[in-house]
Amino acid sequence: MRKRETWATQIGLILAAAGNAIGLGNILRFPSKVALYGGGAFMLPYFISLFLLGFPLMILEWVIGRYAGSKGHGSMVGIMGVFFNQSSLPRIIGSLGVAIPFLIVCYYIYIESWTLGFAFLSLFKKLPQSIEYTDPNLALIPFLKFYKEYTQPSFLAIFFLLITLVLNWYILKRGIVNGIELTAKIGIPLLFLMGIFLSIVSLSINNWKGVEGLYFIFKPNFSRLTDPQVWVEASGQVFFTLSLAMGAIATYASYVKKNEDVVKMGLYTAGLNELVEIGIGASIAIPAAFAIFGAASIPQLAQEGTFRLGFMSMPAILASLPFGYIFSFIWFLLLFIAAFTSSLALIQPLVALFEDELKISHNLAVNLSMVMVTLGAFLSAFVPDFLDELDFWAGAVFLILFAFIEILVFVWLFGVDNFYKELTRNTFLKIPKVMVYGFYGVSLIFIGILFYFWILIKLPQYFQNITWNIVIARSFIIGTIFTLGLLAIKSK
Hints:
Elements (H helix, E strand, L loop, with lengths): L9 H12 L2 H13 L3 H30 L6 H8 L4 H36 L12 H4 L1 H10 L4 H19 L1 H34 L2 H8 L9 H14 L6 H6 L8 H20 L3 H9 L3 H5 L4 H14 L4 H34 L4 H21 L3 H28 L2 H8 L9 H25 L10 H23 L2
Helix pairs in contact: 1-9, 1-13, 1-17, 2-11, 2-13, 2-16, 3-4, 3-11, 3-13, 3-19, 4-5, 5-8, 5-17, 5-18, 5-19, 5-22, 8-9, 8-17, 8-18, 9-13, 9-14, 9-17, 10-14, 11-21, 14-16, 16-17, 17-18, 19-20, 19-21, 19-22
């Protein structure tokens, strides 16, 4: 029997787990959601969702990952099987926890390649180099044009996509310790340094006018507490930013040593993620926009979402500064490192499925996984609306659905006593059992309510104007789920 790897050092484990969670959601998605939903009006639902969903689910995934890993399983197929005597139905349900990260990484890795491409183009001054207007709509015109030409996709976009795929392929081939852990040990400290540097730059623009942006974000605002849309978006951000219900956290946890304190690891992971999200993600894009374009521009700059803020607004803002091309290079390199550590984590559950359940070699498991990811990435590049469809279903609907399944299965069906025994094994924090009932009972109800509003608010718009591109995307999603479900049965 092949011996499974374990993380070599605790600091490597902490940084790799943080790299799993820290991604484009922290630095791009978070500020765009804050800008669109009223700054402080978004933050209260966000913190409530973090407390009721984020922390409980994070700890749950660390607990089940360690438990299943000790028995030789790292993908959600195997994890579900471990808890229920390898029965077929739980393994089939678990295959959704492999499909979700795979479907997300199919489009995520394409966006990741943009960050690498834009970093190099910034360094060699190939992006627009200055802005001539204080009106953000006029100032962004050359950057919008460049972005559209690049992502059509252009030859350069495909070139950098191939480089990004090869980099992920290479690191995964090197394994847990010499690949993922080593990358995190280098990348995450570098990410923190660049993030702190850009935060200082953004806040100090125009005699520290950027500080007003922080006031916009953190000023208490209770005006939208009854708006379901804000709660849906805030909870969705918590899921996405912490990589919850994707199977990736549990897979990483399956490679820990048997006596690892997973409660501490869960808190470290969530804490470092929030440090980047609140400390860095909140301190760059919005403060810089405040300083250059003024308060009224904030919703405007984020109105088309993450891509407008990250690939158009921020380059335009940085272009107005001396040595703006250097700042732009650092900005996109920061995004690339954040995305790179996350894409490795999103692919690893599929690798673990092939290795642990189908018992194939590590190299072949990585090769098969990357061939599948490459196919999805090229479909994301060349099929219009493919990216948006995968983001909605895998990056939104399935996340909430699988989070509900995780709590229901691993806490309530497995048994509170059994879960509590594993939760409190080798941990510094002895959580009272009543808190398990409280947290995971409230979390289950909260997710159910959110899912109801998500269907009510979001779902209807995705069944209008169905095109062939959407049919291709949905066929790919269904085909992925069906194939992984069959593998779950076959590998039993």
